[in-house]
Amino acid sequence: MMTTQLQQELIDYAKSIGVDKIGFTTAAPFMELKNRLRRQQELNYQSGFEESDVELRTEPTKLLPQAESIISIALAYPSRMENAPLGKKGARRGIFCRASWGVDYHVAVRERLEKLEAWLRERVPNVHIRSMVDTGELVDRAVAERAGIGWSAKNCSVITPEFGSYVYLGELITNIPFAPSTPMEEECGDCRLCIDVCPTGALIEGGQLDAKRCVAFLTQTKTMVPDEFRAKIGNRLYGCDTCQTVCPKNKGKHNLWHAEFTPDPELAKPLLQPLLNMSNKEFKAKFGHVSGAWRGKKPIQRNAILALAHFKEEAAAPALAKLLQQDERPVIRGTAAWAIGKIGACDAKDVLLKAQQQEADEEVLAEIEKGLQFLR
Hints:
Number of helices: 17
Strand order of the largest sheet: 1-2-7-4
Largest sheet: 4 strands, antiparallel
């Protein structure tokens, strides 16, 4: 079969299985990206979640020696929640970012990639393919940019004309020499809204991110959140959408195309207090199918404590006191101690002083002292 005909039939098939956009690029090295990634490492801006080997991230033939092309796909996800519940005093709520609404996007994108891979294997003898989404070595955004899916924006997202930056990305490396798509011109212009409103100043300049300062990264860590960022997290339980919601290119982009990404309001904006004492089994049963659950319940519970402190929710004080007294995890005890002082309920001082006498962990003791300082 002629490659041109195969490519068009692949495009048509991709659309039939729910791929919103598909593009093609060569398997040539990503040289500009390589330089940027090395600079990121020099500046210690990387998160630690990504592949550390820059060569693997930028040279497709190191992942598939026979590589000729890369196929990039995008699935649009919603930016608006219908019937979103409102939090109120005594019933405060947290928020999961839009990329964690509905089914885990890794599963959804991988399903499409597997179907595309099977389709190609049926039609091309001895085809070589390697696919990946998010957790693979290649940088999804760099592939998508070069494959004409969208342009690489100042907020470090890929923006598409059709769906804004609300797209999940994935790719297949293959030895089939598909014709490359035309990359798009960058359209951010002089706009720098995303840079100016980033809660922690993580966007250093257009297209450069200090990942360790990014709220999305901070919500996924399992250690104590540094003091300077605690108030910035607000009621976010997982991820951060600020640099997307302020983007003019996302205005009017709702993307309600896939039922599997439709958010359950009670999961996307859950009540905070029930999260505090949720067992592993309960957490997995309720949140296990969403992408925001990948790090387990500990970061979510820690973030829920920070959110309750953000709201100064006095009704949560007894539950926080119980965590401080009984939880086995120092990070949870310490964050609870800080929150108790921040909220400042009438018995906060007694609770903290009692815990101070019983606590042996130095980090938790330091947080208890911070809580007492709030009260002083």
